Amino acid sequence: xxxxxxxxxxxxxxxxxxxxxxxxxxxxxxxxxxxxxxxxxxxxxxxxxxxxxxxxxxxxxxxxxxxxxxxxxxxxxxxxxxxxxxxxxxxxxxxxxxxxxxxxxxxxxxxxxxxxxxxxxxxxxxxxxxxxxxxxxxxxxxxxxxxxxxxxxxxxxxxxxxxxxxxxxxxxxxxxxxxxxxxxxxxxxxxxxxxxxxxxxxxxxxxxxxxxxxxxxxxxxxxxxxxxxxxxxxxxxxxxxxxxxxxxxxxxxxxxxxxxxxxxxxxxxxxxxxxxxxxxxxxxxxxxxxxxxxxxxxxxxxxxxxxxxxxxxxxxxxxxxxxxxxxxxxxxxxxxxxxxxxxxxxxxxxxxxxxxxxxxxxxxxxxxxxxxxxxxxxxxxxxxxxxxxxxxxxxxxxxxxxxxxxxxxxxxxxxxxxxxxxxxxxxxxxxxxxxxxxxxxxxxxxxxxxxxxxxxxxxxxxxxxxxxxxxxxxxxxxxxxxxxxxxxxxxxxxxxxxxxxxxxxxxxxxxxxxxxxxxxxxxxxxxxxxxxxxxxxxxxxxxxxxxxxxxxxxxxxxxxxxxxxx
Length: 566
Description:
single chain; alpha/beta; 6-stranded parallel beta sheet; 16 helices; about 20% strand
């Protein structure tokens, strides 16, 4: 199973996957060999404790070291919001999270993990967030690459995704920004800073909903350096406790960050912010301008939604949505122009504050997705994690540009991918030598040209061997039978039989310079190992008998065309 996330737009049973697609009843362990989690975002790991502890799964769960460290923190944070604050009951417990994480096996980048006798997996760097990985999954000759979420351009704190030219049968890729090609990052950053500066200069408050780790760090580094440069005194706040946790994990997993951070880390930790302080809920109604980074990023719950409710009616304030919002969330509704939002208690919230969307999302855009396809050269592509209309556009583009099949199944739909199998066969050196450089070939052999090998295919268990027919007969204790083909050619030719034989002999020498062509006194000519040409007749007409074994079928056919009257 690739990822096990939850839908952030639902508060009922639809928030978790429908596991009855895998097993109608009973535990899932019998149906699934392993679970792979690509990164710690809740839409990729949020249903994991529910699956393992409540539905029932005891097999291995694979993820990288940073994902294992951060995953339980985000799961517990979300559980507290859902259960303790909202009072929901159909949810996993704190104990479920602990038991679930005990089933996790950590993987290093480029480490090949043998899951069982047939299945092996290998992780590659995906950018996106700390610890995010793409996985190459192989069973026998079939292979799949699953990208999870990835970013093909490096940023301030993470590098770009990278994978081998592994040519999988299938590439399963996210398609969040299937039709978007983002403008220059520098322009976006300048616009972001200008909007914030203008708003706080006019006395307004700026809310930036983010997830605890990822874009938050990227935007904090950007704002910190701007505040330093412009000598601004307006306070910037971050959700209490999460800055410290983020700092701890970025220090611990410094090897997963960008080259710049690794270089400067010895002298200065870029995550020790001078201008950004921890936020307290008591500050919400403080007078004067401020900038607040609050979680979660889609305004569907928690502190970010609480602040939004209080600041939304004031037209001086601004909310900047820096990433993608799932349908159904408050973030998605305001980005689509909703100015009146119905909240849980039927209360209508009037949104007068400015709403801005600036894509600082760490997902690959359309150009990045196409770049990954050309980098790993798959046989087929399957699009997930996107919107149907945009995916359909990208699907057409992939078909046109790469000439490969592209699939975009809906939830619950099955896709059948046809793959080609290459069967490894051993062969003897003598057979290769004899057939790859045949004596009758007048030109030097071309190593790039495909050739047909003639031999006997022997199968022993799962091993296959192509042998010389004589050797195969000996090995099997079978008597060899020779199959010969004959052809009669009539020629209306005056003169002695010997003269015609002489002329044909000279012609065959010219046509087959690398084969032995022998002339016999009984007016017969042999070419190679088994081809025989016998000439008989009288002074006015001649009969040519051409005979060859099936091994020399090519030579026999060529001699017929040479000797037939034009």
